[in-house]
Design brief:
The protein has helices at residues 2-26, 410-428, and strands at 31-34, 47-49, 67-71, 78-83, 87-94, 101-104, 108-118, 123-131, 135-139, 144-151, 157-159, 162-165, 168-169, 175-186, 194-205, 221-223, 228-230, 233-234, 237-238, 240-248, 252-254, 261-269, 273-281, 286-289, 291-294, 304-306, 310-317, 328-330, 332-333, 335-336, 347-351, 365-367, 370-372, 380-385, 390-395. By secondary structure, it is mostly beta strands. Strands 7-8-10-12-14-11-9 form a seven-stranded parallel β-barrel. A hairpin with a 4-residue loop joins strand 23 (273-281) and strand 24.
Length: 429
């Protein structure tokens, strides 16, 4: 019995090992299937991908969801491939051995967990792509992937190379697009249950008024690591982007210029850098600036704002203009969620100041909830007041008049009182 038991145990262990290998095998791809068709002329769709067109593949085997479809060099500068309805594949690979540019037709191509890997150094253009699993779209130097229509179908997409999503939809459950390198542009689609996470690389979304562009109103944005979110640019002009909730623990949010407004139901920054812009339009004689607006459901700027990390104020749009006392730029609109120091920036920067500006060469210092520059050459000071979210031009502290400036100056008041106390104490000593 002992011998029989020992033998049975060895058999059982062996079966378990075989079963484990079999399970592992189901998580890998059976083969690379290489496209070999030359039955095509430049710009046409005569080469077809689908059942019944096996001759276009090496070994006359059409790839399935267990395979990676591999594309290399061809006789023309660009292959235009007509995808047949119902075509599915485990993934796409464009070789680093000199694959030319390929363009896939608009019929849906369903792609599995291998995703898309472009090592060709050239742009590859997908038609209509549906995700069959969570996946990554990656690539080598100078490579890019352009997807004209992408359906996440409830799966998560990670991009680590230059990717343009001309239309993004989601017919499944909640999904996340994670930017982990490269430059990802989402140009159209939505509204839909898609959140965005930027951990490295760059993300920009186009949310153009009038119904075109990508609608982010139901999406959350999270920026961390070394990631950068660039706010909407429309015809080279900064525009509005509407988000549900925006959070940032590291990285950068760049509002991209005066007029660039980040509108959200709640903004929480615990680290990282938000770049705001201020300026002056001499033709219209008006102040201009970007803003972060935390709004309620009715669009009123009363939502929660929570600051942390770095505020970078870009003064390039102001030129050499001299501003009157009381000039105010509304950089943040909403309710400061922290109430006091818990909701302040830890650093404030003043960048790209014109050499002829009164504030050239100046930098911010902090006192309480306020950030202020030294006196400019025109005798005024710049103050960012964290509790109001405003950047204000004020007179120097010794002649400051608080009424009518439109900003709470409690920090300055405390500073003056403490300064006076020190002077009196010094005289008494």
């Amino acid at each position: 019995m002992r011998l029989n038991f020992a033998f049975a145990r060895k058999v059982a262990v062996g079966l378990i090992a075989v079963g484990s290998l079999a399970c592992l095998a189901t998580d890998t791809f059976a083969a690379n299937r290489t496209w070999t068709s030359s039955n095509i002329s430049a710009g046409s769709y005569r080469a077809k991908w689908g059942t019944g067109f096996a001759s276009n593949w090496a070994g006359a085997v059409v790839p399935t969801t267990a395979d990676i479809a591999t594309f290399g060099t061809n006789a023309f500068g660009q292959y235009a491939i007509q995808v047949q309805p119902g075509t599915q594949v485990g993934g796409l690979r464009f070789n680093n051995t000199g694959a030319n540019s390929y363009v896939f037709s608009t019929n849906p191509l369903a792609v599995g967990s291998f995703g898309v890997n472009n090592q060709s150094g050239r742009q590859q253009t997908l038609g209509t792509t549906t995700l069959l699993a969570d996946q990554t779209w990656s690539g080598g130097a100078s490579a890019s992937i352009v997807a004209n229509n992408t359906d996440l179908a409830g799966f998560n997409l990670t991009t680590s190379t230059d990717v343009t999503l001309n239309t993004l939809t989601n017919t499944g459950g909640a999904a996340t697009v994670t930017v982990a390198g490269g430059n990802t542009v989402v140009a159209g689609g939505g509204p839909l249950a898609v959140d965005f996470a930027v951990t490295s690389g760059f993300l920009s979304t186009q949310n153009v008024s009038g119904g075109s562009g990508f609608d982010t109103t139901g999406s959350n944005l999270d920026v961390s690591g070394t990631g950068t979110y660039n706010n909407t640019i429309v015809s080279s002009v900064a525009g509005d982007t509407n988000w549900n909730l925006v959070t940032m623990s590291a990285g950068t949010i760049d509002t991209m210029g005066v007029g660039g407004n980040l509108i959200t139901n709640g903004y929480t920054q615990t680290g990282g850098l938000v770049k705001q812009y201020v300026g002056y339009d001499s033709g219209l004689d008006i102040l201009t600036n970007s803003s972060v607006q935390a709004t309620n459901g009715a669009g009123s700027p009363t939502g929660p704002l929570s600051y942390g990390g770095t505020l970078d104020i870009d003064f390039s749009g102001a030129g050499a203009q001299v501003f009157a006392v009381g000039t105010t730029w509304n950089l943040f609109q909403g309710v400061n969620a922290g109430g006091a120091a818990a909701s302040n920036f830890s650093t404030a920067l003043l960048d790209n100041v014109d050499a002829s500006s009164p504030y050239a060469g100046l930098s911010f210092s902090q006192y309480g909830t306020e950030w202020f520059t030294p006196k400019g050459t025109d005798g005024t000071w710049l103050v960012f007041q964290a509790q109001s979210g405003n950047l204000v031009v004020v007179p120097e502290p010794s002649t400051m008049v608080f009424a009518g400036l439109g900003v709470a100056m409690s920090g300055w008041t405390m500073w003056k009182k403490r300064r006076l106390s020190k002077l009196l104490a010094a005289k008494a000593g």
